[in-house]
Amino acid sequence: MSAMAELLAFQRQTEALAQVMGRLSWDQETVMPQGAVEQRGEELAALEAVLHGRRVDPRVAEWLAASNPETEAEQAHVRLIRRAYDRATKVPADLSAAIVRTTALAHGQWARARASEDVASFLPVLSEILSLRQQEAAALSGGGDAYDALLQDYEPGMTGAALDEMFGVLRPRLVALRAAVAESGHDPVPLKGVFPKAQQLALSEELARAFGYDFNRGRIDEAVHPFSSGSGHDVRITTRVDEAEPFGCFYSTIHEVGHACYEQNIAPDLTLSALGQGVSMGVHESQSRIYENQLARSRAFTCWLYGRMRDRFGALNVQGEEAFHAAVNRVAPGHIRTEADEVHYNLHILMRFDLERAMLAGDLAVPDLEAAWNDRFLADFGVAVDKPSNGVLQDVHWSAGLIGYFPTYSLGNVYAGCLHQALRRDLPDLDAALATGDPSPALDWLRDRLQRHGGMRPPRETIEHATGAPVGVEPLLEYLDTKFGEIYGF
């Protein structure tokens, strides 16, 4: 075998083991018995030790040095494997295993703290996670910016300074849009009623199928915090159900289907390779957000959904397609990020971005996090936090050690804005299909332009290749101004 062939064969086994580890994490969040938490932590730590050993295996360096990549795909394989090897060799094996073990245990502690509204019980393990991630950042950064070092796990090539610049443009425009909505004097009638769980899940499955989710290679389960897991031929999603608020179920499902379809639609010959998964969390989020927002919250699609909801649930308190579209897109400063409207959503992310950077840098002590969160939320949203589960305990990310992950949500919105602008340019009749509940023209465009390529190109190049234009914030801001200007009459 050539060095390239040996490298790819070794990588395939590493990717397969990583998928097994991901499946254990999926199991932990869905069906694992509570009493198994400590054992699961040991299992995950053991697997991480095996994976770390493979990632730093000296033969990888030898194969990389001897490889002679000829095709674009081979060059991309070498680029990504070399990047992963360089990062892995900087992190001690015991530190890597400690992070996995601690975050596995922390998930259960976070869930219990959230259920009992007890922030204090979660803070000790959060402090431990923060310390471990600070050690990892120090090992990776080599004296450089610690946050930038962790950010590379989620958005390679991005920096905190670049995000600051981007968010500095977003924030004032979003604040101005929120003010225009508030000053419009219009408040759409919200959807109210009781929507039985079984019927919500049935319509949720129908929506998943409409948006291209392949149930032969996936499944839907319930979780406290909806997520997508896996790649290739086993890609699973979760959703949540509140019988008083069905949009949470429907749009969480569509959001996670966007993630899942990215993974399911990657070219089959890339399965279990370094290229066989989404290239970054920002690009991943662009898929979930464009599915959820620009497509599923569009006027054309909500007109179809209005009919399907009346078929499933009978008469609604919201009368007419336009009123229903406004209810789906109603702007209100709620506490929960995952339920936030498109105007407020990025403000949730910018707050988390600032708080976690401050914690990592040592400028914000963990015991002061709740107060800092509550103060910032009141300042940004004009609403006080009423309980921890609506505040600092609402997100799973910090318990999982995902410091540097949050800004990729807003970056994904920016990418989605660019993709939507190009998609509408190329598909001028898209609304006719969406009005029948058929988003397939847009899904085909996204699959062919972006999804099937997996990790072939770096994140920004992935978006620019798909759209034929540079990445910028203006397409997202223009989309938001136009959409909400029409709904709220300004």
Automatic annotation (TrEMBL):
State its cofactor. Zn(2+)
Q: What PROSITE patterns does the record point to?
A: PEPTIDASE_M32 (PS52034)
**Positions bound to Zn(2+):** H255, H259, E285
- Asked whether the keyword Hydrolase is assigned, the reply is yes
**Any idea which UniProt keywords this protein has?**
Carboxypeptidase, Hydrolase, Metal-binding, Metalloprotease, Protease, Zinc
Supply the CDD domains for this chain. M32_Taq (cd06460)
Reactions that this protein is recorded to catalyse: Release of a C-terminal amino acid with broad specificity, except for -Pro
**Class of the enzyme per the UniProt entry, highest EC level:** hydrolase
Recall the GO molecular function terms of this protein's record. metal ion binding; metallocarboxypeptidase activity
Return the InterPro entries for the record.
Answer: Peptidase_M32_Taq
| Pfam assignment, any one | Peptidase_M32
The Enzyme Commission number assigned here is 3.4.17.19
Query: Active-site positions, per UniProt?
Result: E256
Q: In the record's cofactor note, how is the cofactor described as bound? A: Binds 1 zinc ion per subunit.
Query: Which BP terms does GO give this entry?
Result: proteolysis
Q: What does this protein do?
A: Broad specificity carboxypetidase that releases amino acids sequentially from the C-terminus, including neutral, aromatic, polar and basic residues.
The family classification in the record reads: Belongs to the peptidase M32 family.
Question: Per its record, how is this protein called by name?
Answer: Metal-dependent carboxypeptidase
> Whose protein is this, by species?
Rhodophyticola porphyridii
